[in-house]
Structures are given as structure tokens and as C-alpha cells.
Amino acid sequence: MEPIEIKVDRSEFLDPTKIEKPLLSFKEFLYPELQQSGPESYKVSDLEPIYFTTDQRELIFSGKEILKRFQSLPDEIERTLNLQDGFALMDLSPKTFSERFPENFVACWKSAIRNIAGNELVPIIRAKGDSVVCYWHGLYAWRFESPYYRFAAE
Length: 154
Prior knowledge:
Largest sheet: 5 strands, antiparallel
Distance between the termini: 23 Å
Low-confidence stretches: none
């Protein structure tokens, strides 16, 4: 496969209440300081898939447990993707997205939010029909075996 370069505009803050399909229940980002962080360009092949596991190598399925893991490893959350990265990935065709991300699922953990009801949600990028879309998934109902993607260590 030919390398695909992703360019990300980090100059503007993405407000979840002002995007195409707004998240009207938005209250706050869990990591506000990371919303404009990350490289301005990268190759999709530079993203590493990482599975959430316990010390015994069992998969972690609980969204709350995943959040606790990130809170205990602050350098790890900094290497994940944010909403700006997710929106840049939405420029890929559904076919290309599905080929590059076989799980058809990219979570933007740096942009996890708390809504006005107190629930945590994370933006998910996936191919759906003839487009690549963003939707918000509640951590209370997390049941995915998919990896998360992070930028490779330099």
C-alpha cells in the first residue's frame, strides 16, 4: 500500500458544539490542554495499534477502566489522537479508511469529553456508507475489542 500523508490544521480549536453534527450536551474536555497538540502531518502507517490489556494480557473492555489506564500513564494519552486528527482522517474515502483501519474504528482519546449529564464520551471515526463519519460513544457502554491508535515514539 502506498503511504498516505495526513495533514492536520492545529491552528483552530475544534468546539464540539459548532461542528457539522454538534454535540449539544458538551460540558468539558477531559484533557483540554491536548486539543491542539500533535504533529501537523503524519503518515497513516506511523500510527501504532495498541490493545488495552491488563498485566495478565487480558483485554480491557470497560471504557472507565481504559480512562483510568490513561490517567495512570499521562505520556500515553499524549500520543493518542484528538478530534483534529479524527476530522483529518474523515477526508479519506471509506474504502481507504477501511483498508488502513481494518477494525473500521478509530477512537480519538485525547478528545474524550464529559457531557452535561456527567457521562464521559469519546469521538469515534469510522466508515459508514459512502463517507467517513464522527460519532460520540459513551464510555459507560464501551464494549469494543478494537485497538486504539497512537503516534509512534520518535
